[in-house]
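Cross-check.
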Amino acid sequence: MRIAVLGTGEVGRRLASKLVSVGHEVTLGSRSADHTGAKEWAAEHHSAHGTFAAAAAGAELVVNATGGLVSLAALEAAGAENLDGKVLVDVSNPLDFSQGVPPTVAQPEGASLAEQIQRAFPGARVVKTLNTMTNTVMVEPSRVPGDHVVFVCGDDAEAKEVVGGLLKSFGWPDERILDLGDLTGARATELVLPLWLRLFGTFGTMDFNFAVPRA
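Predicted model, tokenized:
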């Protein structure tokens, strides 16, 4: 597929690199066309880079890997017309560090970031996933032993199937892709982040994830 990854931070670059390695045509999107990090990544991976709008316009699927508090603005810059009808994978978390550490999770009126994105861009097919782990585990689940899981939620069943295919190409087997139903499930997965940050402080490593044993 032609995929746009919006966001040039560590998460965006990690996901973009993995998507290239499994055979997709990836464009890394940033606020400006001459973003140094995006240019360097594109040169290293023989791929394209451009503005949020340029990247999204040419894509069949869009990944939001921007910072959660600026995601809506970044997607507005990408343009609703460039998101309409496309699967939009949201991996971001709306963490607010304005009051220090630990951060709070910004969910105005109880709505997750993913739901806010869906409301702002009703033509997009938003799927929330991969936001409950560090970026290295996202693309290499074997870093963590055991039957740990990746959560998926969204209102569009076909879009979730597309995202499930991407997750399987990353190394997530079917039985460890846990569908939480509609997009309101993102409220819960985003609120996992304070626990994740506390565990990171306890373990001193990001190489961990959540397992859900069932009887």
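The beta strands are 2-6, 25-30, 48-51, 61-64, 87-90, 95-96, 104-105, 125-129, 150-154, 177-179. The two ends are 38 Å apart (CA to CA). Passed to J.P. for a second look.
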